[in-house]
Structure formats: C-alpha cells, structure tokens
Amino acid sequence: MKLVIIGGGASGMAAAVEAARTNGNIDVIIAERLDRPGKKILATGNGRCNFSNTNTSTDNYYGNDSNFTAWCLKRFTVNDTVNFFNQLGVFPKEEEKGKLYPFSGQASAVLDCLRNEVSRLGVDIVTGFYAKSVSIGKKSFKIQAADGRTLYADRLIIAGGGCASPALGSDGSCFEIMRALGHRVSELAPALVQMKTDPKEVRSLQGIKINGMLRLIQNDRFIAEDKGEILFTDYGISGPPVFQLSAKLPFKNNITASIDFMSEYSPKEIYDILEYRRDSLSHLTMENFFTGLLNKRIGNLIARRVGIEKLSFSVGGLDKQLLWSIVSLIKDYRLEIKGTKGFGNAQVTAGGVLTADFDDKTMGSKIVKGLYACGEVLDIYGDCGGYNLQWAWSSGRLAGMSAAESMM
Ligand SMILES: Cc1cc2nc3c(=O)[nH]c(=O)nc-3n(C[C@H](O)[C@H](O)[C@H](O)COP(=O)(O)OP(=O)(O)OC[C@H]3O[C@@H](n4cnc5c(N)ncnc54)[C@H](O)[C@@H]3O)c2cc1C
C-alpha cells in the first residue's frame, strides 16, 4: 500500500520517518515541488534552526482552536523531539528562553539528519512535483502535478505549509487542494514578521538599534510586551521583540506600538537623571542634551515631539513640565502600526485549514477518509522561539504514525 505526503518540509519529513518506522510494509513517498526537500529548514533560526523550545505548551499556539495542539504535543513532546534528533545525530543546545538549537549551530545539520533517516528507511522523494489537484477514486487518491505527472495513494498527508516565505516553497497551493476536497480554510494573515509604521515617523531613525521594551496596545488596552533589540528601518520596526509580538497582530486593528527606551528605570528615576543633566549641562543646546544617554537621533525626535523645534534651544530652559513630557516619551514612544511586511517576509501563516474538521488524536480528516494534514497548513501557528517547528515535528509524526497504522 502507498502513502503519499505532499510537501517535503519539516512536518512532511517527520511524517515520512514516523510512517516508515511504524509500518515497514508500506511505500512512503514524499512529493515535493522544489528541487530538494527541506529548503525552509535551512533558513530557520538565522541558519541555526531553533528546532524546539523547552517551555512549549498549548499557550504558545494560536488558531480558532489552539487546544487542538494539546493531545499532539503530549503524544510527541519536546523531549521526544530532542531524543528523535539526538538519535539521528543532532546534539541539542539550550539557549535563552528555552530555545533549542543543534550544538553545531547549523540548520543544515537538522536537514541532513532528516534526509539520512528518510533515505535509510527507503522513503521515495519525488522532487519538482508541484501538486495541483487531488481527486478521490474508489480506493485511492489521485494526485496530479502541474507538469502532468500523477501519483496514486491509499493514504494522503497534506504537509505543504502555508503562504509564508513562498520563495522557500510554501505558496498556499495546498489550501486550494484542501478547499477542493471539502475542507474549510480560515482567513489568512502573515505572522512573525516585521511591522510597518508611518515611514515619516521612523525614517530619521533608520538603522538605529536599541535595547528596549516593546508593548502592543489596542484602543488603549495593553496586549503584550517583549524586551530586546529593536531595529528601526525605512518602513517601520524589526528585531526579535517585533517578531515575537507580531504573533499577536493577525486579525486585529488599531494597534499601536509603544517603545520604552529606558525600561530599567522608573519615570521618577529618569526625571532625576534628566534634571541632573539639565543642571550640569545647562551650557549646552538641545542638540547635545541626550548625547551619552540616548541615540542622538532618537533624542532629537523626542525633543521635536515635545514641541522643541529648534535644536539651538538652551538646555537650561527645560522646565519641569518639559522634563516630564520627555520622560513620558522615553517610557512610552508610540508608533501606529500600519500593517506588516507581508507573507514574503513572514515566518509563518496565521489561519489555515480549520482544525474542527480533523481528529486531534490522529490528524485525520473527518471529511475525507484516509486524508491527513500536519504542520502549518492547519489553522495553528506558534510564538517565535522554536514553537512552530515543534508543532511541525509533533503533528507530522502523529499524522505519519496514524496513516501508517491505518494500513496495518
Ligand atoms: C525565515 C524563516 C525562519 C524560521 N525560523 C524558525 C525557527 O527558528 N524556529 C521555528 O520553530 N520556526 C521557524 N520558522 C517557521 C517554520 O519554519 C515553519 O513553521 C515550518 O517549517 C512549517 O513546517 P511545514 O512542514 O508545515 O511547512 P514548510 O516547512 O513550509 O514545508 C512545506 C513544504 O511543502 C512544499 N509544497 C508546498 N506546496 C506544495 C505543492 N502544492 N506540491 C508539492 N509540494 C508543495 C514546499 O515546497 C515545502 O517544502 C521559520 C520560518 C521562516 C520562513
């Protein structure tokens, strides 16, 4: 009997390994549209592959029903992932916030180990196979590729990912296949992605990196915060806290980012620092007031926002009210979020094939018998920090195991 897996990414390869290990009597075939499987894995974690996270829980996932992840993450846990890769040769290294990487620091190691195992197990990889449609025969699935090639399968796993970073293979084509098979697909949006602001607001700060606290606010209501290196660009903001908090952006409007440039200090402490500077540097003009405290360009922008248009303004003229206005901006510098850098730059897709139509114990479709799905094609995505790959491994292995068991 034959199991075909559409998509040779993280979840597809995990599914193939688990299926072949579970049932040695089936043919497992990966149908991958690119010229080789796992290209996206090479780009993960800035080329280091943050392959899991020791803090993983259902709280790290989003979707119409993020609890769908619970059983799967219990069946194939983070420890299972660590052991799985350790057995294949990837020695793990834990870094800050529970992030797991290969000790060698190379994403290629994760891909190489997976490819070695897939090959050891005799899994057939058909590359350049761009699946365009699936039809259901009496006993089998017929999978048609864009170039006219056809594959037949007794069981089918859809592991084609979402729409994020299409240059790495996942172009959303599997959503069309799933829709045609009767599955519902929720609204889609890019996540784990840079945020756009009014370019006029950030242009003068382009290239500056600061270590600060980023908060997201919706209609004056706090949503989430994260601390780290924030990079100002010509379109808006980037950097680890931006990617992290962008997980909260999909399907929300009226979002404002608030930057705290001196999160280690209370407003009163900053006031005292500024007052001391005003008194000891009273011979200076505003142009140099912030030098040594904040990046000069940030200082100039803050000065302008509090109404000091001329940098020739004497520091000695900073009264109590102006100092407090500066404190407020240092602690809460607001930028209206106008959108994101889109699917082309996103790490993951928010939304996807509705999990309500799948059995969380098997990853099997409740609509089409013998059909399974795993990874990002489903309406599940996770926080930044290894959670998305953990979902790919866990859901892929569960789908592969279930499909293979059903052919015993
Ligand atoms: C730049 C970048 C960095 C990232 N870093 C991390 C990280 O460090 N840690 C982390 O946890 N997550 C990270 N992610 C997210 C993570 O890579 C994905 O969530 C994960 O790869 C999803 O796995 P998947 O198997 O569902 O889909 P994918 O890995 O996208 O694989 C889908 C595969 O299916 C193929 N395919 C698609 N459509 C078809 C079709 N019609 N026919 C045949 N083949 C098809 C594609 O070519 C692709 O090979 C990152 C993502 C990006 C883009």
Helix-strand blueprint:
Elements: E1 2-6, H1 10-22, E2 27-31, H2 39-43, E3 52-53, E4 61-62, H3 69-75, H4 78-88, E5 92-94, E6 99-102, H5 107-120, E7 124-126, E8 131-136, E9 141-145, E10 150-153, E11 155-158, H6 173-180, E12 189-191, E13 195-196, H7 199-202, E14 209-218, E15 221-232, E16 236-238, H8 240-246, E17 255-260, H9 267-280, H10 296-305, H11 320-331, E18 333-336, E19 339-340, E20 348-350, E21 358-359, E22 364-365, E23 371-373, E24 381-382, H12 387-405
Parallel strand pairs: 1-2, 1-11, 2-7, 11-23
Antiparallel strand pairs: 3-6, 4-24, 5-6, 8-9, 9-10, 12-20, 13-16, 13-19, 14-15, 14-17, 15-16, 17-18, 21-22
List the defining traits of the structure above.
binds flavin-adenine dinucleotide, alpha+beta, 24 strands, FAD/NAD(P)-binding domain, 408 residues, 5-stranded parallel sheet, 7-stranded antiparallel sheet
Folded structure, characterized:
With 408 residues, this protein is of the alpha+beta class. The chain has 2 domains: 2-190 and 349-405, FAD/NAD(P)-binding domain, CATH 3.50.50; 194-341, no CATH class. The chain has helices at 10-22, 39-43, 69-75, 78-88, 107-120, 173-180, 199-202, 240-246, 267-280, 296-305, 320-331, 387-405, and strands at 2-6, 27-31, 52-53, 61-62, 92-94, 99-102, 124-126, 131-136, 141-145, 150-153, 155-158, 189-191, 195-196, 209-218, 221-232, 236-238, 255-260, 333-336, 339-340, 348-350, 358-359, 364-365, 371-373, 381-382. The strands form 7 sheets. It has a 7-stranded antiparallel sheet with strand order 18-17-14-15-16-13-19. Strands 7-2-1-11-23 form a 5-stranded parallel sheet, covered by helices on one side. A 3-stranded antiparallel sheet has the order 3-6-5. Helix 9 packs across helix 11. The longest helix is centred in the C-terminal third of the chain and has 19 residues, at 387-405. The N and C termini lie close together (10 Å). The mean pLDDT is 97. The site of flavin-adenine dinucleotide has 40 residues, from helix 1, helix 2, helix 6 and helix 12.
